Amino acid sequence: MSTESIWKQIPEPEDADLSKLLNQIKLNDLQSRHPLEQLRKNFLMNIIWGIVINSGYIVLLWAYPLWQLFITIGLVFIAGLVAIVQGIGLYRSLHRSVSSKAPLLQEMKEQYASISKVIKQQELYFLIIYPFAGAGGFMLGGMIGSGKSIEVFLSKPVIWISMLIIVPLIATGGHYLGKWLNKIAFGKHLSQLKENIDALEAEQQQINEAS
Amino acid sequence: MSEAAFLEMVKANQGILYKLVGLYAADQEEKKDLYQEILLQAWRAWPAFRGEAKFSTWLYRISLNTILTQKRKPQRVDYKESLEPFAPNVPHGSEQQMEVARLRQAIRSLAETDRAIISLHLDGYENGEIAAMIGITTNHVGVKLHRIKQQLADRLNQGA
User: Fold this and answer.
1) What is the ipTM of this complex?
2) In this complex, do A199 and B100 lie within 8 Å of one another by their Cβ atoms?
3) Is the minimum CB–CB distance between A24 and chain B shorter than 8 Å?
4) In A, which residues are within 8 Å of B29 by CB distance?
5) All domains of chain B, ordered by start, with CATH?
6) At A65, which helix (H) or strand (E)?
């Protein structure tokens, strides 16, 4: 018997669980678990935290007006400000909902591009700020911890050497930690999207070439 | 349109949702999650629905777009678990039930995009309509359907 005839034999499907759900559901109370929604929520939280942390930098620089901190923390502050402005633009460009008009392939490609763009922007931002944030934190922590002025604290070569070792370690560690967390959150999903996009596009290309 | 009226329209077409979530969900819990997500996405998109397409076609498209862009668990090809809601009126143990079960298992074992294409085809959509919903050319749909049907036939024969 053909596939079509078996399919036609199947009566209109019913599902008691889903039917019960439909009768109880309040659409306006539903919370979306869609990756786009998750991405937007996470991104909004990042922007809010970015504003809070950047405000903290201003307080820090006001409390410790030292040129070494102005260079390191100041650069982190500027990078943070740029990231916040870019982040707001990106946040606004992220779709909140699935399209009811776009074809499936386009929808998958747009979602893949949006998630990849957010991840890349976050990784780039952290790659830039980790070394400066690490150096600033090291100097400030050392100064407060030792109770000495920053010039005295940094005057010993062992402190400089320690900073040159620790700061790249913090920067590299932070960068890979961020990558790993993104992989946990979106890695499998991105791979699945890519696989589905490739499945549709690769064959289309072959057909185009043949015709 | 009110929420109640929208849900009534969904109820009239809920077979589409049952069938699609049944083809993609890995388990009962995921089936409910996918179903709720489709309802929510459809409800959000509803104000933009102008009736250019039939409601069922519109719902089919948003369901596929939601399911295939949603985070899902790895696929389990386990027709026993999901056969009952799929064909509750088919007598247990009958030849018809076995055929339905084998077809369902065969479709669930296909690649995700192939499952979407064959289900649209089996539900009576023309190749041009499938091409517009998936975003590929009509020629490509023809090529894909030919290959998918061969795969299904092979799998159904293996299981026979």
Assistant:
1) 0.86
2) no
3) no
4) none
5) 1-78 (1.10.1740.10), 93-160 (1.10.10.10)
6) none
